[in-house]
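Entry for the shared binder. Reason: the reviewer on the internal report wants the predicted structure included alongside the sequence.
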Amino acid sequence: MHNAPDSGCDGGGLSADEADTLFSRLIPFSNLALAVSGGSDSLCLLVLFSEWRQRNRWEGSAEILVVDHGLRPESAAEAEFVRDAAGNHGLAAQILRWEGPKPASNVQDGARRARYRLMAARIAETGAQALLLGHHMDDQAETFLDRLTRGSGIAGLSAMAIDEPGGPEGLRLLRPFLGVRKSRLEASLDERGLDWCRDPSNDSTKYKRSRLRRIMALLEAEGLTAARLSETAGRMRRSRAALESVVHDIAARLLEHHRSGPARIERAAYRELQQDLRLRLLAEMVLAVTGRRPEPRLRQLETLDDLFSSGQHSRQTLCGATFEAGSTFVWCWREAGRTPPETLDRVTGSGVWDRRYRYAVPAADADAACCEGLRLGPLMHAPITRKDIIWPQGWPKSAFECSPVVWDAQGAVLAHTVCLKSRTGENNHSCSLDLERVPIRGRLLLGGDDKRVF
């Protein structure tokens, strides 16, 4: 399970000065999590971070997160190995286990998604501000080549970022080693006499990443090194940032958001945009109505764009959102699908509902009897009949199935600030629940003042 490098390591390990430079961006943080599998890359992250923390007297909190996927017999022992390594370096570790059935195909992708999901849940508990990953320059080059084989555009070929605020599950990801070769990380461990875990699947040609590593050796012989590929990815990332800035401006001008969730854009205005901008605007609309950053394939976006650029009326789904193109507008809303928004049976304190709305019960009202019965859920599950709803003009009715509704035993009420009255004896008691849209890009349509107007 524990292995030293198979061959010599060019360049030697990272010096203390180099490590200080790489970790200097962590100084403003006060609570961090580190993803560690026990492989050489992530174990080096654990070791060098611990040394940097002590050397620079960083006083923040840090926790090591290790995921036991349960896919190999030795995975539990490897998780314990990481926990011991963390303890030896003065760091707490949490083992997260992937329970339940495992996918029969695309196992590595399923494991990656489960890994981020488990770590995001833990980070929500601990309040960590970012997740550190051990990705390095060789990973960056492999990612670029992988995306290239898939026919990705600028977004895909920009590969990974050192600081990625909107990562999977909404996590902020930090990759301090992204400009460092893997061999130097292994050398850093070797110089300290440390072993690491080795995953046999990393050498199996069954997996695409392993095959790409073999190709990399051939490409380097022709001058297409990992450093050169990483530089190209960086230039792609600059171009992507410039395009996204333009798209954000377009969204602010052209996108209209109803306060209850859906968004729309005039179809004529959509058609006038350049195709690259249209494709990115579609992804922006998905993010706006679902609260999740989508990961669509370029081909999926291009298929949608072909429909919306034509005169056809159509309805399609993409990454948890439903799109509908009419004669005047292209609408987009949160798809109910198999996972509709949850219903909170007891709304207390504050939080975020369905990643789209912030709610809060003011402290002064928290103990009021009427607040005990407050529920927050989607229109599709609310105790309200459709005839009692004044539907907004210019929007499909189905666009509001996942809109937030607050109700009690007396019926449903929809408003950004809800005030419910109850009577106990001769006294009147009231409480309020503040409900506001998570910030979005575009114009927010406030609608009418009627509590049942969507």
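Summary line for the report: The mean pLDDT is 85.
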